[in-house]
TrEMBL record:
Residues 2-117 form the Hemerythrin-like domain. It comes from the Bacteria. Pfam families: Hemerythrin (PF01814). This is Hemerythrin domain-containing protein. InterPro entries: Hemerythrin-like (IPR012312).
Length: 153
């Protein structure tokens, strides 16, 4: 499994969480909001730290600037979602907005960015897919710390 396969698997995991959210009864949805925030924050952190710097050498830099802006938009919506997760009406509206932004972002990455990254030597990323998986646990802790800051007590 190379680095791009790990990233694509994370995209599928995020989509599975949205599906689980839709299938879940109302009382389980607040917890799924936290899991969505964790998975998305983890993935964005990995991309911004190890993947996008390399991507700038294979796609136009402005394309990556735009991707970083979209991550910012997702972070904003996730923060709103965590604050609104016990308010059914606000939560449902925010989840719908978030899912639209995420679906668009993931599809564009898989169409325009990831295929070009397949041609890059794994060494260029500064870590192997195994190390990436290990580093993900550090990024996960960081993501959880950020969530703890964003979430109400
Ligand atoms: Fe991304
Ligand atoms: Fe991604």
């Amino acid at each position: 499994m190379d680095i791009i396969d790990v990233l694509i698997q994370q995209h599928r995991d995020v989509e599975a969480l949205f599906e689980a959210y839709r299938a879940a009864p109302d009382d389980e949805r607040p917890e799924l909001c936290v899991r969505l925030a964790e998975a998305l924050t983890l993935h964005s952190t990995i991309e911004e730290r190890w993947v996008y710097p390399v991507a700038r050498s294979v796609v136009h830099g402005s394309r990556i600037d735009f991707s970083v802006e979209e991550h910012g938009e997702m972070t904003q919506l996730l923060s709103e979602l965590l604050h609104a997760r016990w308010d059914e009406r606000r939560r449902e509206t925010t989840v719908r907005q978030l899912e639209a932004v995420v679906a668009h972002h993931l599809a564009e990455e898989e169409r325009d960015v990831y295929p070009r990254l397949r041609k890059v030597e794994e060494g260029a990323f500064g870590l192997s897919s195994t190390e990436l998986a290990r580093s993900a646990s550090d990024a996960r802790r960081e993501a959880l710390r950020q969530l703890a800051v964003a979430a109400p007590p």
